[in-house]
Each structure stands twice: as structure tokens, then as C-alpha cells.
Amino acid sequence: MFEGVKGFFPPPYDPKEPVDFSSGKFLKMWQGPQHPGITGNMSLELAIAGDTVYDCKTHVGYLHRGFEKLMERRLWMQNFPLVCRIAVPEPDFNEYCYAQAIEELAGVEVPEKAKWLRNLTLEMIRLASYLMWIGGQAGAFGHGTIIQWSATMRDYVLDLFEELSGGRIYHMYIIPGGVRSDLPEGWTAHALEVMETIEKNLDDIELVMFHNAVFKMRAKGLGVIPKDWIDRYGITGPNARAAGFRRDLRKDQPYLVYDKLDFDYVTAEGSDAYDRALVRLGEMYQAIDLIRQMLARMPSGGEFKTALPNPLHWKIPAGETYVKSECTRGEYGFYVVSDGSDKPRRVVVRGPSYTHAVSVMETLVKGQNIADVAGLMVSLHTYPPEIER
Length: 389
Fold this sequence. Notes:
Layout: E1 27-31, E2 43-49, E3 52-59, H1 67-71, H2 80-83, H3 92-106, H4 112-140, H5 144-165, E4 174-175, E5 178-179, H6 187-210, H7 213-219, H8 229-233, H9 238-241, H10 249-252, H11 273-297, E6 319-327, E7 330-338, E8 346-350, H12 353-364, H13 373-380
Helix pairs in contact: 4-5, 4-11, 4-13, 5-6, 6-11, 11-13
């Protein structure tokens, strides 16, 4: 209705040309780093005209950073409290990748019981991370009820981690050679009760959120990722599966005990914010099912860790390796190089957040309404420290 109003909107804008703020037609606005519509401590430098976004630049580095260089100055075992901080809501994937990299370089064999326990914790943290995410996705569209529900359910999972490892957020449960401890007495029964509670709550979330007319209107059609972008940008995880791609490292290149579990790809076709949410909801139900399968088939006896040399004097043989896993956001990998000393020579963390939060976000947000920036960003699911690592 503002068509023809002089000076209110800029003339047709070519996105290939840089925005010129000196023209007076654009407003520079910052969203974040402290903002409920930002996935962590990062900020978006937006160029706005009216209520439309014409350009976006991502800025990170507001939180802890520089992990890779810090790791090169610490003993191999001293890095476990550090790697957890790279992806705070799901630290166990960092523990697993780093431990597995050390084991491959040092030729350490992991007991079968430890593989089941590792796999169990990875699916538990997947569920906890998704519960945190879905509250943020609902909140970005003004749906506060879901936040209260999902935060409570996540706390129940953190209770289980506290009983298992002593820590709620950072667990440091996975170590080279296995895990730090076996399941405590009575833990399995408690875990099954928690899974039943969360599953019932997910039924409510599905009804209240995914059948909500406002959520459908705002999420459907928002941030559609074209299928030819998936390989071009290196998009992985639910963002790729929501575009119809059947890609999941747990199925394609099974690790730990995933090849012994019964599950399938969770996919959608619309490739928008709604379908990305739908895929993640499906994977929350899937995580609950996988946890139940593992608890039912968990070996009752056996060692849960292998004896290791003195960690203060442990020198890892020279070599290099790349270990990857399927985290909640897609392929997550550690490239680790040893020169035969007691410290890593080089560590490079490959997480999906750089691609999703920078390359994809900066492109998708152009032309969107400013009110949808938060919803779009959360739908891509990113963790800033993983970018500024």
C-alpha cells in the first residue's frame, strides 16, 4: 500500500550490489549479541528499508573462542574440559570426536560396553539439545508456552546426566579408552520414566505448536533452501533432510553401535522453517526410541574403559586422523594431528554452524520481513563458539 510513496522504499535493489548506507535509503540495525532471537552470543548487522531486510552480515566472537590454538598448548587429557565449550548445549559430541581421534592415533581399543554407553549419552544430549532448540523456535514466533514445557523436559535429561557423570551441562564422561563410569544403580529405571514423560510432552508440543495457525502461517514458506544449495553450500543434518535428502552419518557411515539399532532417516520435502522443525520433532521421538533400545540391550557386564598410560606423560604416536559424527545440526568432525609429543600438533573442528549461520543465513535473510529474522535464524540451528573456534 506504500507503492509510490516517495522516499519510503528504495528503488528496485540488485542484491549483487553492496548496500550504500550513505544514500539514506537504508537503516543499519543490529540484532544481538544479547537478543532472544539470536542463537547464542552473536549478532547480525542488518540493512533495513521499511520492514524488509536487504543485506546481512554475521558477527561472532562475543563468547569464548580460540579453542583450536588453546588445545595445542595443553596435554592431550587436559583438553577434555575445553572441548565441551565448543558446543555448549551438546558437549558430548566434542568429547566423542576428540576421544575417538586420540584412540585412532594411539591404537587404543574401546570395550563393547563403553561403545553402548557412549552411544547412549550421544542420543541423550541430542534430545536435550533439540528440546532447547524447539523452545527457541517457538519463542521466536511468540509462543512462550512451548519454552516453559521444553525447558522443563530438558532439565529432566540434565538430571540424568548429573546422576551419570556428576555434571549437568559439561559432563566429560567420554574419555580415551571408554567412559568414566558405569550406569549407577536405579539409573535405567529413572531414565525410562523420564523418556515416557518427555514423549507425552512432545505429543502436547506437536498439538499446540505444529497445529497452531499462527506458527503455520509464519513458518511455512520461510527460508526455503533450494535443493541445489545442499551440496553447493555443504548443508548437512536436519537442514538437508528437510529438503528431502536421506543423509545421516548414523546410517550412512555407522559408528559406535548405530548399526545394531533400528531406525530410519527422518525427512521432509518443503525445506522451509516449518519442515525443518518437523524433522527435528521427528528426531526427538527417534532419540527417545533409540535410548529405549539401548537401555534394553545394554550389556550387563564387562569393562567400560581401557587402562591408559599416565595422562600427564602420555605421548601420542605421530599421525593424523579425522573423526566425524552426526550431531543435531549435521556433520561434526575433528581433524587431529600428532607429532609424537604430549600435546596435539594441530586440531581443526569442522561444525555445520559456520555454513548454516554465515553462508546460508546471510543469503536466505535477504528479502525477508524483519519480524521473521529470528524465526529464520533459529530454524537453521547454530552455535556461535563452533564458528569462532
